[in-house]
């Protein structure tokens, strides 16, 4: 299988050190990966670095050194202090990684975290990787319902988001029948295609407390979510009516479904990160390329101290490999 390509993310955050630690953990046992980023910054993480030209070169260098496609940063990195002047290079790295995946030179993309505020300050106009990668791949063919849908997964929980990075007061107007239905279709198709689940079971989380309490605590369940669930079932998708979100994520409840369709960011991310912060992975569904990421952010408070845990990055690398295999990557 072709190597995965990893992006460095925010260079002043934990990205470089968790990538170096992931290579140390995986160099003898996992499929090769290549990093796009500043080779000197990676050398400073204490790992041997092999500068390579294309992802394919990673295959024969990976066992002895971290393969890096060198893209120097314009400004020196001060650990813990992001510099917006480096942000365009961060975006360029993501774009190049995606182009390797689109051309088939890479089997997928694993992104280290970016710091959103300095990216926005430098003119980056996307809420995050998810929407940026969707735009970069918009013209590529895709055999199914197109996303992006953000999914966070840890252990046996897959939580998928109808709305992503929006202020809470905007959520109710964005929870439309069209958006909920599209999210469920993308998730249903992806569970079959990328996760080899033959008959996916979806659970829909309600928006309001007690699933609206028959309309007394909100009308979205009656007006939008119950009709959408009925329509999706008519299409052959196994999905529940909206269930109270407060009782959807404990052990016994999780055993009843393969993925939860969640209405907003924290409804999905709090259970995942509480269940397993170290093993959590962020996955972009419904795109022509495979993309995963650790569930955490840039960790500026701990960057450079040697205490950042690579577990979530390692889980993201492993999951991207499994998804690429499920998609039949060469
Ligand atoms: N996929 C991405 O690009 C993501 C980017 N972010 C960005 O990260 C920045 C910081 O966000 P925060 O909310 O502070 O979340 P954060 O995940 O960076 O930090 C939250 C807490 O977790 C700890 N932590 C994070 N990664 C760790 C690791 N590998 N090992 C040990 N401890 C770790 C931090 O020290 C901190 O105490 C923001 O700019 C945000 O936009 C946040 C989430 C995902
Ligand atoms: N809270 C999740 C997050 O910020 C990840 O966003 P993205 O960069 O993966 O789109």
From TrEMBL:
Name of a matching Pfam family: PdxA
What pathway, per the record? Answer: Cofactor biosynthesis; pyridoxine 5'-phosphate biosynthesis; pyridoxine 5'-phosphate from D-erythrose 4-phosphate: step 4/5
Reaction equations catalysed: 4-(phosphooxy)-L-threonine + NAD(+) = 3-amino-2-oxopropyl phosphate + CO2 + NADH
Molecular-function GO term, any one: 4-hydroxythreonine-4-phosphate dehydrogenase activity
Which positions bind a divalent metal cation? 165, 210, 265
Q: Which InterPro entries match?
A: PdxA, PdxA_fam
Instruction: Report whether Metal-binding shows up as a keyword of the record.
Output: yes
EC code(s) of this entry: 1.1.1.262
Q: Where in the cell is it found?
A: Cytoplasm
The cofactor(s) it depends on are:
Zn(2+); Mg(2+); Co(2+)
Q: Where on this chain does substrate bind? A: 129-130, 273, 282, 291
Keyword flag Cytoplasm = yes
What does the cofactor field's note say? Binds 1 divalent metal cation per subunit. Can use ions such as Zn(2+), Mg(2+) or Co(2+).
Keywords on record: Cobalt, Cytoplasm, Magnesium, Metal-binding, NAD, NADP, Oxidoreductase, Pyridoxine biosynthesis, Zinc
Identify its protein family.
Answer: Belongs to the PdxA family.
This protein's assembly is summarised as: Homodimer.
Q: Note the NCBIfam families from the entry.
A: pdxA, PRK05312.1
- Anything further noted? The active site is located at the dimer interface.
Q: What does this protein do?
A: Catalyzes the NAD(P)-dependent oxidation of 4-(phosphooxy)-L-threonine (HTP) into 2-amino-3-oxo-4-(phosphooxy)butyric acid which spontaneously decarboxylates to form 3-amino-2-oxopropyl phosphate (AHAP).
Name the chain's protein: 4-hydroxythreonine-4-phosphate dehydrogenase
- Per the record, the gene is pdxA
């Amino acid at each position: 299988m072709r190597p995965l390509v990893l992006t460095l993310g925010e260079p002043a955050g934990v990205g470089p050190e968790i990538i170096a630690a992931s290579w140390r953990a995986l160099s003898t046992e996992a499929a090769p990966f290549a990093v796009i980023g500043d080779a000197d910054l990676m050398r400073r993480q204490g790992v041997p670095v092999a500068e390579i030209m294309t992802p394919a070169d990673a295959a024969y260098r990976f066992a002895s050194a971290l393969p890096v496609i060198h893209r120097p940063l314009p400004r020196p990195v001060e650990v813990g202090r992001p510099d917006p002047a480096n942000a365009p290079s961060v975006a360029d790295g993501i774009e190049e990684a995606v182009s390797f995946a689109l051309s088939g030179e890479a089997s997928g993309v694993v992104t280290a975290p970016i710091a959103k505020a300095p990216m926005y300050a430098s003119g980056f106009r996307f809420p995050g990787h998810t929407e940026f990668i969707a735009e970069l791949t918009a013209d590529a063919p895709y055999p199914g319902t197109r996303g992006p849908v953000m999914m966070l997964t840890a252990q046996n929980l897959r939580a998928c988001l109808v709305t992503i990075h929006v202020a809470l007061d905007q959520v109710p107007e964005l929870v439309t029948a069209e958006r909920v239905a599209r999210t469920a279709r993308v998730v249903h198709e992806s569970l079959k295609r990328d996760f080899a689940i033959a008959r996916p079971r979806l659970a829909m989380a309600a928006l309001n407390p007690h699933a609206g309490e028959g309309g007394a605590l909100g009308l979205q369940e009656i007006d939008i979510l119950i009709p959408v669930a009925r329509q999706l079932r008519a299409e052959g998708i196994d999905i529940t009516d909206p269930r109270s979100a407060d009782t959807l994520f404990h052990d016994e409840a999780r055993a009843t479904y393969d993925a939860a369709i969640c209405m907003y960011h924290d409804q999905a991310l709090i259970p995942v990160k509480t269940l397993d912060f170290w093993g959590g992975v962020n996955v972009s569904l419904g795109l022509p390329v495979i993309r995963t990421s650790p569930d955490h952010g840039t960790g500026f408070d701990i960057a450079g101290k040697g205490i950042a845990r690579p577990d979530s990055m390692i889980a993201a690398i492993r999951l991207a490999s499994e998804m690429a295999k499920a998609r039949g990557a060469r």
